[in-house]
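Changelog note: in this version the structure field was regenerated for every chain. One regenerated record is shown below for reference.
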Amino acid sequence: MTEVAGTASKLKARYDFLDLLKGGTIILVVLFHINTELTRYVVTPFFMQLFFMISGIFVSTKVDFVKYLISKINRLIVPLLFFFILNYAAIYFASDIVGLGKSGKMQRFEMLSLLELFDGTEDFTYAGALWFLIGLFNLFVFYYFISKISSPIIRLGTCFILSGLGYLLGEMHVNLPYFIDSSISMMFFFGAGHYLKNFKWFLNSTKYDLWLGIILLVPYTIIIVTNRISAEVMLNSYQGEHILLLVSALTGVFGVFFVGKVIISIPSINFLGRNSLIVLCTHQLLIIITSFVTGRVVLINGPWVDFIKLGIVLISEVPIIFFLNKYLPYFVGKRDLFHFN
């Protein structure tokens, strides 16, 4: 009985630290959207790559493709449609209050905007983070077919080659519809998550985790301090030397990953991690409202004001998460709206 309980505890700890990593990363995403210049050269070299790698850890392709596809529609496309309408409708009706004004785009709030969202031409002014759901959906679909390659090494090598192709498209300023170029540039990290989860040392705690994390984060810190590098994955746009971008992404992703294995859980951050999709899809609307309020209450500007905004946004997310999970679970990926028998 004790052995079973111990095994269950270890299994829970494995996934607890992944929630911690998702929660920490989503906090960085919110801070990035509050003050892009403050965080561009500090977190962009690794934070979206980490998100995609964690997503790869959870992928399972041992099911029929139609069933697999419907599952991803429930988890990603249904929330995409729901939050697109929610964000744009909220901005449409509140734009005068918060001083945005009704732009031509907002005045023509219609199905055309939704179609533009899907072909990747829409300017995501008020709901930019929604691109991630499209990008992740792409990766799940593409990887289903890549996973049929029997050799794990060749499979991972294929992902690396595709990421290189995506990166080259970004360098040539070739943007494909539906964020396909951005998606395939992240294929290596997604595939790495799926590949490495089969090794016990990757998800299980080891005595070397902290040292590995520190060893990897030292070169990451040196690179970001001595160079101006950034990776804006949505735009598939990268700034900096090729090798430095690759090394910073690898050391940042895996350095933070191993440190997360040591910390395992910070309840409030793990909570945000378990509900990262809701935070991802609602935080930009909350940032607009928070900026409007703090702009009238706080008379002094500075980076510290951005952290006040961050705190307000994250606290505001809590009742939103509880409400959506309880009353609208089918629209936030918690329950399946569509079924396949």
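Spot check on this record: The chain has 16 helices and two strands. The CA atoms of residues 152 and 195 lie 7 Å apart.
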